[in-house]
## 1
Amino acid sequence: MHIVIDALSSVSGGAESYLRNCLPRLYDLFLASKGEHKFTILAFKEQTHLFPLVPKSACFLIEKKRISGFKLALWQRFSLRRIVKDLAADVLFTPYQVGRPYPGVKRVVMFRNMDPFTFHKYKYGAFLVFRKTILKWESIFSMKHADRVIAVSEYVKNFAEKELKIDSNKVFTIHHGRDLRFCPEADLEKDSQILNEFGISTPFIFTCGLLWPYRRCEDVIRAFDGAINLDNNCHLVICGTGFKPYVRFIEKCISQSKRKNNIRMLGNVSVEAMQVFFRKCKICVIATEVEACPNIAIEALSSGSAIISADNQPLTEIFANSVGYFSSRNTKELAIMMNNVFNDPQEISNLKCRALKRASAFSWDQCAIRTYSALVNWQI
């Protein structure tokens, strides 16, 4: 059986993390099948840095410059069918929820983006509303016509079955794994050097992720303002970029904050810097309202962060009892939790231990094994 993995649509940070961590493990599993199953990655040439351990002989590389959005969808509509036919694919797996069916080819897609189904809760311009609406209906069409759907959380699986009426017999839950580069152990001197490069030398509260309205970064800023018992030298560190109008809104929130001099908005930073921020922060706050299986949540667990989280799904599924929860959008409650946790070394220690224990539930090895099974076992 020849399985082709279409990586062309993997453009977000989370999608790239999936390619980086899962594809080499999948390759090893296919290699171990000793010819029973063949494995090919379909990708743009400039994506190969994401899976350097996979030999080029196992890749079908598109030489043209990487494209995304409508341009990619249009190109795929006219070119992907021919490529799949030329490769004699038996199974086509797209680690995203949009993928057209092809005659004689089993189709597997991944439900990993809830934004197209929740964007109406937030303010966007006409073009983005149009784009997200198209993505919503394309996602529904793709999942209904797919032979299998890999859901990245139970929350997503339930949404697919109950809200989108996807056949429950073809939906499998496979969580993302734990990236072992995010860990509490570190070179103390190197960590200090990275913090100094960003001008961070005091206890700090950390929040991060793509800055879109669902991220609710403004709630963290307002709670930071209201947490009056924090150390005067405590900083709030924000990492990430995204929707420009929302980024400008967050910048305005910071400028209006009475603690604006203690808030650092760093934009995009390296993976290495993110590792340091997760393990060195005194508290990590995750306030997001719209996720499928958030990588930042698993990275925070893996780093042994003391986490305070909004009580939204799937955060409660991912974190279980390893974090302190506040009611979503309740900035007063979040401020109280910030105060209490920040000033309680024993609670910080407890949260860190619980985070590391919970992190062990997530494994890229298990993710790859279960994905392999979903791609090659069609008797069940």
## 2
Amino acid sequence: MSRLFLMLFLACAASVTKCPTALAGPIAVPAGLTAGDQYRLVFVTSTSTNALSNNIGYYNSFVTNAADLDPALVALGTTWTALASTPTESARDNTNTSPSSMSVPIYNTAGQLVATSNATLWDGSIAHSIAFDENGVPPIPGYTEVWTGTGTSGAPDDPSDPLGTAIPVWGDTKSAMSNWIDTGGYYEAAGNHTMYAISGPLTVVPGDVNRDGVVNGLDISVVASNWLQTGMHMPGESSSQQVANGLAISLVNSNWLKTAGDATTSSMVSASGQVSVVPEPATIVTAAIGGLALMACRRRRA
């Protein structure tokens, strides 16, 4: 890993053009979160399906296929489940969002807070609507119907409500009131509508400088093109250390190719939220050489 890391730094140093940056798309890491913070993402699919199946696995596969349409969501390395209920599975159980269970904040793909916890997801209203799809953009104007089969509690209110019955209940994607999940209206199950998808728990990875949910060469390019500049958001550095410097390099190297969906990182987060990096022996050497390469890269661009 260290050899590849060093090669990337040296390649940057030899270049006279600016390294590439990520394209616009869904916000993978919402603003305000720092290294070690956990969260979940939710979106409405740009694709549609009928509600004829009574198997929750069908709907989980459907929303996963929608998430796979955007490389930025694929890169997170997480699982996706449907905020939907069938006769045998409630939405809150399918998505592990029971109000009584341990939870994390939930954001839409525009970076807006939807709910601070599982409890607030199912308390009758949400902070912002889930009106953005897997690409981080609103669906077709006027097209707001989403299959849910679910009441405001996260479970069906009536045996006739779930997906897989004759006329399931639906939600309104543009609403932040109770009808985001349950409008009280019904459609024939054969009709095609969108669905809500929610990720598994995600963690802000130290070294994810460009905030795309994965530590890779793009983070190297950001550090290289901003070498020793202050005011940048460097996950893992305290407010007094917001500088593109050797610590930033060490964070990238220590967490190379880790994603927000990974269960662990090579860094330890204290109770105060401060990240303490424990680099491999070779990391320190790589960081030092990498720093020289970065300075060379900056001088060549000047």
